[in-house]
Each structure stands twice: as structure tokens, then as C-alpha cells.
Amino acid sequence: MINKDKLKNSSINDILDEYPYTESFFEGQKLEVDDADKSLREIFADLTVEEMEDVVFDVDQFAASLASHIRNMQEFLGENDSIVGTLSILAGKDKDGIRENYDKLDIKSGEIISIVGPTGSGKSRLLADIEWTAQGDTPTERKILINDEVPDKKWRFTGGKKLVAQLSQNMNFVMDLSVMEFLNLHAESRLIDNQEDVVERIFKEANQLAGEQFSREAQITSLSGGQSRALMIADTAILSSSPIILIDEIENAGINREKALELLVGEEKVVLMATHDPILALMGDKRIIINNGGIKDIIDTTGEEKELMQELKVLDKVLTDLREDLRYGKNLSKISDELAEVKTA
Ligand SMILES: Nc1ncnc2c1ncn2[C@@H]1O[C@H](COP(=O)(O)OP(=O)(O)OP(=O)(O)O)[C@@H](O)[C@H]1O
């Protein structure tokens, strides 16, 4: 997803600064460069006919070949994180076939976007459109762009290195492995240096997210729903190099949602999260409102809402504690007269 046109207008020095491994590429080409501060376009414009013959390529082919070299190197180095600057959603249609009332929604890396709307309104569908990098070929007819370009189709199919990591409501393990075997297997496939430390960290974080603790030797197929999700979340947060993270209703997982989100939100990632939970929704920088299959509105989270979130956290803590007491067979008592007076009618 390196932009070929941007490369053409960049100087050799700028390209080397940003992608130092292109040095070998330039060395391999017989490109005559008198001034490395000139853009590729200028360098090609200044070539004599003889020099041009040596290079074989014209500037377009040269930039395309350079872009492909950079992509390969980024993939090899696992630098996918830096690839997505902007994820864009181009308007499609709602369930009645009516066009959505925005043209293009840009989401920048580092942003958290929540997706809210009634049950069945199309939240999961929107996440699926992004995962599939839809090009008008889903029921919504939306299109997804990455860095303002149509994403490479290979993202749909490559197994190991994915553009999108998705955590969905129904996640079950099918392999017969212990927790540690599973984590080591995954870490090995990512070719990381400090495998032992990383695997240990995932195990610890997962246990902090899960309500009930589990051991290193536990079979992953025997974990509870909450434990499996905790493990998947910690694994995704710490091991995944995917620059886009999609989360479908983390609240149903019986895990510490807030901690989970904190763990997942790497600075360089785009995070989209379908939720019915006001605390999670307000953790987003923006929220997409979905109704009848279409995006109806995009709202920025206000300062007042961020303040409200603190109050909601207090309420949430009260409920969490009650749930905990209930689970461990304690009798519940009235919380406070103030709360008791809140009208529920
Ligand atoms: N624009 C659309 N056009 C046609 N079908 C759509 C559209 N949007 C969503 N759908 C379909 O509507 C159904 C419900 O959507 P979806 O599962 O995404 O809802 P949801 O908001 O995630 O619901 P829940 O909150 O219950 O998880 C799905 O079958 C989905 O494919």
C-alpha cells in the first residue's frame, strides 16, 4: 500500500530515510543520480537517452517496482503496523436499498471508533465489510479503501499476516493443545526474538482479563467462553501485527472489558468496536450510528460524555461487585438510599 505516485515525487534521500532497506534496490538499478535530493520524477526527466537505456524502466515502472520492493520488505520485517494510515469507508446502501447519507468516512490510525445501533441493524455487517475489504461485493455495496487505495486482494486470503484481526462473539478453539502449546505455536509463526517472555506475558494478561483463572497446562478446548476470549484478546493484542482490529461485542465475554480494550488499543492501530455498552461506546473517539443496515450518523464523543463515562464507571463497578457477590453465594444488601431513589419507571 505504498503509494507509487508519492514515491515518484519523493527524493532518493527521503526514500532512504523512510525505508533504509531500499539502498540495495537503488544499488541494483543502474540509475544515474547526480543529486539525491532530486525527486525520482526529476531524476528520470534529466536522464540522457543512453542513461535511459541502461535503466530499462520508465519512471512509472521504476516507482512500481520500488513500491513492490518496499512492500515485500515490510512484510518480511513484519512492519504491517505502519502500513495503514487511513481506513476509508465509501457509502453503500441500507436494507431498503437507500444510499447512506455520507460519501466517505476516513478513520485514522490510532483512532477508536465504536459502532452502535439496535440489534440486527448491521453492526456486524459493517465489521465484516471491513474484514473482507469489500468492493461493492457485499449486501451493503460499501467499498473499503486503505490509504485511499483499493486494497490488495491478497489481504482477503493470506493466513498468517492479516490486515485485520477480528475478535467476534463466537470464538471457539478447535485444536487439541494446551494453553502454552498454543501460544508457543503462534509465537513461533511470528518469528519473534524473545518468544518465552512474550508468551509468558500473554498468559499473564489473559488471566488478568478472565474472571476465573486457568493454568498453563489447561487444554484450550476446555476453557470457558470468557477464558477463551481473554486468551484470544491477549494474544491478538500482544502478538498480532494486524493494523486494524475489529471487536464485536466484547461485553458478552465475561471478561474485564475495559482492561481488554486498553490492551488492544495499540497506538498505531485502527480499532472498530461494535457495542451495546455505553462505557465502551464512549471510549471511542467517534461513534458510528447504524440503523436498518445503513450508517445514519457519525458523532464525535464530547467532553461532557467523557465526564459521564467516569460516572458510568462508578455504576459499573457497583454492578460488577454485586455480580461477584452473587457468584460467590453472598447475600446482597441495598446499595444506598440515593440509588434506591433513582426512578426506573
Ligand atoms: N445494508 C444492508 N443490506 C442488506 N442486508 C444487510 C445490510 N446491513 C445488514 N444486513 C443484514 O442484516 C442482518 C443483521 O445484521 P447484523 O448481524 O450485522 O446486525 P447487528 O447490528 O450486528 O446485530 P446484533 O446487535 O444483534 O449483533 C445480517 O444478515 C446482515 O447481513
Automatic annotation (TrEMBL):
Database matches in SUPFAM superfamilies: P-loop containing nucleoside triphosphate hydrolases (SSF52540)
Keywords for the protein's UniProt record, in alphabetical order: ATP-binding, Nucleotide-binding, Transport
Record keyword Transport present: yes
Keyword Transport belongs to the record: yes
Pfam families noted in UniProt: ABC_tran (PF00005)
GO molecular function, one term: ATP hydrolysis activity
Domain ABC transporter: 84-318
PANTHER family: OSMOPROTECTANT IMPORT ATP-BINDING PROTEIN OSMV (PTHR43117:SF4)
Entry similarity comment: Belongs to the ABC transporter superfamily.
UniProt-recorded name of the protein: Uncharacterized ABC transporter ATP-binding protein MJ0121
